[in-house]
Design brief:
CATH superfamily: Extracellular Endonuclease, subunit A
Largest sheet: 7 strands, antiparallel
Radius of gyration: 18 Å
Structural class: alpha+beta
CATH class: Alpha Beta
Strand order of the largest sheet: 1-2-3-6-9-10-11
Helix content: 10-25%
Shape: globular
Order of helices and strands: HEEEHEHEHHEEEEEEHHH
């Protein structure tokens, strides 16, 4: 069974992470009334994190393996909805490189492996006991993409947790969503990795507002009506940000500028404080507008 194989090669912890050296903020810009409480878990201060929803129904899943890279990606899971709200992660030169022999995980059915598998950080009562995507007509839409996690085989395998998925139509998943994922990855490698020191990425589908839910399947699985991405770029101490907001429908569009909005506008749609760990004055400057030309969008 896949789980036996996986536990040999990785250790995954709930509420455990390491802080990145790229998360350092100058001493004169540390006033932040909206930051996550990181007194118990310092990883909550990582720049890719949005404001945690908190409450009894929500939990943070932090996937961390012993591959030398530390935290792979993090997810906020809603127990009552049995759905993920977002996944967030970092992109930088060393984790954008493809490791030797690393490729997209493909399950070996002869060994009883599953292509998509349960996240055992979630108690069984708060997740589906089976793969709820099976025979629904929807793709397993990665939120932290497999293609963003090729630095080790373990890191790639971890992206196939069901907790990292949202239901997406195939023409959306393999169309505009894939094109947006590619654009983000290309920003990370642009100008021979000279465009950004680090990209801080948070992505998800809309699961909270009824007007933003496309449907609920008979199993209870929520199908988001919209998907979104928020990207924070840091280069030589300078910060810029951009967001994507796109309707969940069959769409192969490669011209992405029309979907770009400011972080502030995305926050108003989601009622989520994105990049909340930035100092307040810097957060407001960065999130209030978006420079389409900087990002090279058409």
């Amino acid at each position: 069974m896949f789980r036996k194989l996986f536990t040999i090669c990785t250790a995954v912890f709930l509420f455990v992470a390491c802080s990145s050296n790229n998360d350092i903020i100058p001493d004169n810009e540390t006033n932040n009334a909206n930051a996550n409480d990181a007194s118990a878990f310092p990883e909550y201060a990582r720049l890719e994190f949005p404001k945690l929803k908190g409450g009894a129904n929500n939990r943070v899943l932090i996937h961390k393996s012993n591959d030398g890279f530390g935290v792979n990606y993090c997810t906020e899971w809603d127990d009552s909805k049995k759905s993920q709200r977002w996944s967030c992660y970092q992109l930088y030169k060393s984790n954008l490189a493809t490791g030797k022999g690393v490729k997209r995980y493909v399950a070996d059915r002869r060994k009883g492996e599953l292509q998509y598998f349960q996240d055992e950080l979630i108690p069984a009562m708060y997740r589906f006991a089976y793969d709820p995507y099976y025979r629904t007509g929807y793709d397993h839409g990665h939120i932290c993409p497999s293609a963003d996690r090729l630095y080790t085989q373990t890191a790639n395998i971890e992206t196939f947790y069901l907790s990292n998925m949202q239901p997406q139509s195939h023409a959306f998943n393999d169309g505009v969503w894939k094109n947006m994922e590619t654009a983000v990855r290309q920003w990370g490698t642009r100008n021979n990795y000279g465009f950004a020191d680090t990209l801080y990425v948070c992505k998800g589908g809309t699961i909270d507002k009824n007007d933003y839910i496309l449907k609920r399947l008979s199993s209870g699985l929520i199908v988001p009506k919209y998907f979104w991405m928020a990207i924070l770029r840091v280069k030589d101490g300078q910060y810029n940000a951009i967001a994507f907001w796109v309707k969940h429908e069959d769409n192969k569009d490669t011209a992405l500028a029309k979907y770009a909005i400011s972080i502030n506008d995305l926050e108003k749609k989601l009622d989520i404080d994105l990049f909340c760990n930035l100092p307040d004055d810097r957060e407001e400057r960065i999130e209030s507008s978006v420079n389409i030309n900087l990002w090279g969008l058409q």
